[in-house]
Amino acid sequence: MTQALALPTRKDEDFRYADLAALAPLWPVAVETIAVAAGERGSLALVLDGSEPVAREIAITLGDGASFDLRVLNAPAAYGRVAVRVELGAGAEFTLGAAQLAGGDQTVEIVTDVLHAHPDAISRQVVRSVAGGSATANYLGKVRVAKGADGTDGEQSVRAMLLDRTATANARPELEIFADDVKCAHGCAVGELDANSLFYMAQRGLPPELAKRLMLQAFVAEAFTGAADEEALQAAAKAALERLL
Q1: Helices (H), the chain
Q2: Chain mean pLDDT for the chain
Q3: pTM of the prediction?
């Protein structure tokens, strides 16, 4: 008889800020596996914008010189979680562009664990979150550089915008490096819409609500720049923002 996998607790780092009550009916989450052979290219666009809670877990393995482009719109009307584990071969390249939109009292989160197991691999992660009401938007991202993985180039850019003082954004970019001669960086910021920019736009005749929408659209658009299906992702993100606002 197979023993059921126990529901995580807040002692588990990857679930520190999760809505465990919302996660419980979805648990355990089946792992989706993607393997990209040496020298090959792959891509995936996930648009989570339905009315039901959703949890996805994806494990990606990249062969030497392979590349994978993952884009995520995490904007369901309920709990939404996307967890991604990636292992890069020598000279492989991984790109993540993700946007999260949440309102009411919902929780959305993206959790990543990117392992540079071999030399000269590149990873780029761009995550943009917008939270209003009493919603919570989480990003927990780890970049691990194994011993001997010299020439690694890893970067995380994490920004969150709070529409209300009652909303919350949790961001934990993390680097774990066991190799020399690497280039790794992360940037993280949580804030509100810039009042000076809104004033500038108002002075040029844009109504405040339209100015707010345009600024948020540009903010979220950063996650999808360069995607193969950028136009469709931007349209889906715009529709999700309209529902949020």
Answers
A1: 20-23, 195-203, 208-221, 230-244
A2: 93
A3: 0.94
